[in-house]
Design goal:
Length: about 80
């Protein structure tokens, strides 16, 4: 793939995003505000998933291993 096709593909994706989210009908300052809020929400979801999902997986693993009778050598 050459660089021009990649650029066209990303511009097509951005156009699709604007059409689907109705950003195309907003004024430029409204688009900036909407994109900032959306990016902030996505960043918070990714951060929360990065921090809390491993903890929940470990706790679920300990819970189900105790129920099923599997004992880890590192468990107290």
């Amino acid at each position: 793939m050459d660089l021009r096709r990649v650029k066209e593909y990303f511009s097509w994706l951005y156009y699709q995003y604007q059409i689907i989210s109705c950003c195309a009908v907003l004024e430029p300052w409204e688009q900036s505000m909407f994109n900032t809020i959306l990016l902030t929400i996505i960043a918070m979801v990714v951060y929360t998933a990065y921090v809390f999902i491993p903890i929940h997986i470990r706790l679920a693993w300990e819970f189900f291993s105790k129920i099923c009778g599997y004992h880890s050598t590192t468990a107290n």
